[in-house]
Amino acid sequence: MKWVTTLLCTISEKSVQLALNRLAIMKLMGAIFGLMILTALSHSTEIGSDINAKKNSGPIADRLAIRELIESYNAAVIENDAEAWGANWSKDGLWNLGEGQEIVGREAILRHWKDAMEVFSFVGMFAQPKFISIDRDTANAHWHTNELAKKIDGEMLRFIGLYKDVYRREATGWKILERRYEILLLEKPVYKSSNSKEWR
Length: 200
Prior knowledge:
40% helix, alpha+beta, six-stranded mixed sheet, Nuclear Transport Factor 2, Chain: A, 37% strand, 200 residues
C-alpha cells in the first residue's frame, strides 16, 4: 500500500502545482485585461480626443471659459457694445451668416456687425450649448440661439438659430476663430413691443 500512498502524494503535488499555475495565468490575464481597460479609458478622456465627436469633452475649465466667452458675446449684443463684441473674435476670424455671406478678419466682421445693428433699436440674444469639445489649443461647439429684435420702425423679429463654432486659445484666452450661422426659425411676433415705463 506504500506505493499507493506515494502515488497519491505525487498526484496531489501535481494537482496543487497545476492549480497554482492556473491561478498565475488567471492573474496575468486579469492584469492584461485591466491594462487594456485603463488604456481605453485614457484614450476616451484625454484632452486630444476626437474634436468631431459632437459631445462635451476636454477639461471642464476650458469648457467653462468658452461658455464665458459666448456669454460675453451675447451680453455685448444686448448692450450694443461694439468694442466688447469685437474683443471676442480672433484677429483672423471668420463669420459665415449663410447664403454666401462670409466675412473674414476681425475688423471686417466688426464693421459688418455695426452696419447690421443700425436697423435695430434693441436685440436680445441668448444661447444654449449643444456641446463643447476641447482639443488642446483648439475647440468647437454648437449653440442653439434665441434672439428677439426690435427694428427702428418698431417691427419685432424672433430668430431661433444654430451656431457652429471653432475656437482658438490665444495669449489673452479663448477667442472665436469661426462662427457659422443657420436660421432654424424666423418669427414675426403679433404683439407690439413696449418699454418698461409703459407698463409700470
